[in-house]
Amino acid sequence: MTPGARVSAAIEILDGILGETPAEQALLRWSRNARYAGSSDRRAIRNHVYQALRCLRSYAELGGSKTGRGLMIGYSRAAGLDIEAIFSGDGYAPYRLSPAERQAGNDPASTGSRWNLPDWLVPKFEKSLGSAAENAAIELQKRAPTAVRVNFAKADAKKAASSLSNDGIHSVPIPGVCTALQITDASRNVVASNAYKMGWIELQDSSSQAAMELIHVPEYANVLDYCAGGGGKTLALAARANANWHAHDISMKRMGDIDARAARAGANVRILKPGDSGLAAPYDIVICDVPCSGSGAWRRNPQAKWLFDETQLDEFIDRQIGILKAASKLVKKSGLLAYCTCSILIEENERQVKEFLTSERKWDLERDKRWPISPTGDGFYLACLRRI
Questions:
Q1: Which of 192, 264, 331, 373 lies at a CB distance of 3.0 to 4.6 Å from 139, suitable for a disulfide?
Q2: What Cα–Cα distance (Å) separates residue 388 from each residue in 223, 270, 283, 336?
Q3: SS (H, E, C) the chain
Q4: Exposure pattern of 109-137 as b/e (b: 16+ CB <10 Å)?
């Protein structure tokens, strides 16, 4: 496909997404009807679409309209591309710009436009992050990094990196996170690599890895991952501690990959059905990676940034405090409750912990820490609460 044809495809897909079709669904629908497109074409079109969603507001202003065509005009202008060559009308390229389109479009002026955030989120970013708010918003406009966690139960970082290199995948260590390697190219080939198949590595954001490194797991401890999902945090802890591991979630489907991942990693994880979280209680450690806005990881799912609203935030806040209180009842005396989110919003992080400590007197905040949205990792928050 020519560059112009790829832009035409992105315009078609974006029009579907703007009609509130989920991005992945719109991409899959197009892909099924475009058997002629090669793997490099599909990757390029996907990158066009996701970048346009990350910068939807500023591209719409640069392009003169909030349409698929307007976004790709804005994309081309922001990237300094030869817009006349792309919008040439030749073959499958988009038709030529009209005189009105050539005149339309302005540089983003408001903070929300420059930061590519809904206006209501701008003050929340500022209150939550202070002087770091603008940098966080700018990082959300970029492609997310790919990191893998080295499974120290089977390999060290040097061995894993060498194996990846043999498969044509290059990586570099991430400073401050001993288990993390950042993939610098061929990230889509990671799951086909020998290192992945042998359980030496697992895909996991570096901020999440760093948070798990702060949790000390005593020998033979009884540990519950209360909102386990795919079990990534359990497996990260299991790679460096001999303990009794339990995974629980409100949905069995979300935990569908744990058995295969645990077998590959050499870990033994007991899966508890929804509602059975107390079967092995009390626990020395309970991890609560609660449902949240995902604002620290919106560059991976940029459509969510534009669909998120204050009603949803309130709903998440209610669910989070409910989960914290329910999970706290499963922790033994002197045990640890680890609360974490991939959010940067203070309402979902420090404020939730403060609310919990105010209502539950038998707990102390041992430590809490934020990880910023950065070139190496997503925004993340961890609070370690100790039962008195």
A1: 373
A2: 18, 28, 14, 10
A3: CCHHHHHHHHHHHHHHHHCCCCHHHHHHHHHHCCCCCCHHHHHHHHHHHHHHHHCHHHHHHHHCCCCHHHHHHHHHHHCCCCHHHHCCCCCCCCCCCCHHHHHCCCCCCCHHHHHCCCHHHHHHHHHHHHHHHHHHHHHCCCCCCEEEEECCCCCCHHHHHHHHHHCCCCEEECCCCCCEEEECCCHHHHHHCHHHHCCCEEECCHHHHHHHHCCCCCCCCEEEECCCCCCHHHHHHHCCCCCEEEEECCCCHHHCCHHHHHHHHCCCEEEECCCCCCCCCCEEEEEEECCCCCHHHCCCCHHHHHHCCHHHHHHHHHHHHHHHHHHHCCEEEEEEEEEEECCCCHHHCHHHHHHHHHHCCCEEEEEEEEECCCCCCCCEEEEEEEEC
A4: eebbbbbbbbeebbebbbebbeebbeebb
Which pair of tokens denotes residue 288? 């609560």
| Token code pair at residue 276 | 């059975």
**Strands of the 201-203 sheet, one edge to the other:** 171-173, 180-183, 146-150, 201-203
Give pLDDT, residue 34: 85
Mean pLDDT in consecutive groups of 10 residues from the start of the chain, 388 residues = 94 94 94 88 95 98 96 96 94 94 93 97 98 98 97 96 97 96 93 97 97 96 96 96 96 94 96 94 97 97 96 97 96 97 98 95 95 98 96
pTM of the model: 0.94
Q: What is the reported pLDDT for 20?
A: 83
Indicate the residue type of 177. Answer: V
Dist. CA 354–CA 291, nearest whole Å: 18
Cα 201 to chain centroid, rounded: 18
